[in-house]
From TrEMBL:
Protein origin, superkingdom: Bacteria
Residue span of region Disordered: 207-271
Biological-process GO terms, alphabetical: carbohydrate metabolic process
InterPro entries for the chain: CBM5/12 (IPR003610), CBM_sf_5/12 (IPR036573), Cellulose/chitin-bd_N (IPR004302), GlcNAc_Chitin_IntDeg (IPR051024), Ig_E-set (IPR014756)
Protein name in the entry: Chitin-binding protein
Amino acid sequence: MKLKKITILTGLALLATSQAYSHAYVQTPKGRPLLCNERVNQGCGNISLYEPQSFEVADGSFENGSMGDQVGGAGLSASLSEQTSSRWAKTVVKSGPTTFRWHFTAQHWTVSPASFRFWITKPDWNPNMPLSRSDFEAQPLNCYNPIPNFANSMPGDSNSKFTVTCDLPDRSGYQVIAAEWNVGDTAASFLNVIDVDFTSDHPVGTVILPSGDTDNGGGTDNGGGTDNGGGTDNGGGTDNGGSTDNGGSTDNGGSADGLQEYDPNSSYPDPGTEVIYEGKVYANKWWVNPGQTPGATQWGPWEYIRDHEQTNPSDKFPVEMNTFTINEENVREGDRVILQVSKDGVMKEYDLVTVPRGMTRNQLIKQMTDKINQISSQELNGSIIAGVKNNNGEVVPNDELVSIYQVSAKPYSDTSFQYYQGNNHLKNELHLMDFKDQYDLNLNGAVNITAKIMSHASDKTNVFVTLQDSNGKAVYDKRDIQLSPMETYSLSLTVNNLQLGEYDLIVGSVLQGAPTWQKDMKIKLVDPNQDGDEATGNWVSNKVYTKGDRVEVNGVIYEAQWWTKGKNPTQSGKWGVWRVVDGQVNDQNQGGEAWESSKAYTGGQTVTYQGQEYKAKWWTRGDIPSKGSPWEKV
């Protein structure tokens, strides 16, 4: 059976882990996973909601295109691979030097700053289709001035951040940046996509919500101006937010690890100061006044960092590494779970379980737990243990989830689960019926679209339908459709207050563990009281036009000078009812139709002959205009 490799987080109900030895995410400008974690983006799936630092892929996955059209979710999240111009929040940027900042939840040995690379989408990319490697430029951005600068070491500063300046090219509107960190001590890289908008309508650093509204709760980064979440960046010169860790330098009696308890009577002027509040560690993003309690508001000055765990001297396994859980319906015959353990730059893999027919979730968790503890005892010197800690700090079996802990010496830089799903149950496809390329818009600006959507997926799938205007703004977005295999959904979509013109109607299907299926249909909303030519602004022979009306013929725009009906703009002549206001008229059509020897003309009609315009003085047929007589030059 052919297997498809995905992380254990894909398609599973993930339980939030501690900061443990998970990894990193792009903090500035905020990547798609982080904006999901902060609930700015909605409908993201569990991995980004709880683990924005865990978008880990095999080395080279982005460059070699092996993720297909699932780059948006790093091949790990079908939800994050959805792609429309109105689906995700965007950060305003501008062309030129721009600050990028990675935030580490755990350090990894890295070769050099060149291990951090960024690619931007091409100018002509399609924002309404899932992202693939071909949507991005071949070469990464030009980046320089890394802070800290390093070689063959851990890249983060004392605040677990790495900053680099990159030159953004000339772009306009919505673009996506793929950010990659190639770590040196595992065969993996971390990949985030960053949704950005090159616009002058808002200050740089503004977050534009999917609704089109703006949110500045997290500060701004001017790419050389001010970043209130981490200090000041003067165009790539100095990062004052990453040079000092004020949270760990002073012990005010708050905890054994040097962190102080939050004091409601104190100010916290230095960004990055970490405090403990109600069992959690928070860091301030900018100046905090007395009384601004951590966690009080979603967009406040405090950023949740991790849970705070008091050190217990009797705890033999104090370091939590990773946690695994799964929904019952996702346990399927033929799937495999593998444990990856990294030490001194070398990663080893251990088979934990291949799911047999009829295995339940509880049985899967138990077998994984027993196998990990057996591997630890026989091959890892008992340095790790699997289970869940009870109230006494003892690691005991649990039939709903399994966590991995290691000894305080931290011999392993990383442990992770990998889940391999058999592709015999990973088909994701829709059959669309009765969709049209043109719909009537009534006098009240309302449109009704009826059609049918049939699922050809191999399992229950989540279907979304989005209607976007020509500016990429969603005027309709429905995401609560669930279809079982071969089930048909009758779509009846009604939207009010619309304008005539072109729209994108996007239908997609999300099945965890399978590539996102998506189709972008170009449709046109028209006035049912106008014929086809009139609806597009073209000249109509039987329509009455009055002064100021404009029409288009052969790419040329004409404007009526007075009342007219039936007069072809191309035959109006220099002094006729129609005047050219935009476009170039071909010489052979200038002023009138081409003269034909077999056609009769009456007085006042104009023709073009050998590039010259002539006007008939009386009835004529067969008389060559250049010979005079019934013809005179205009």
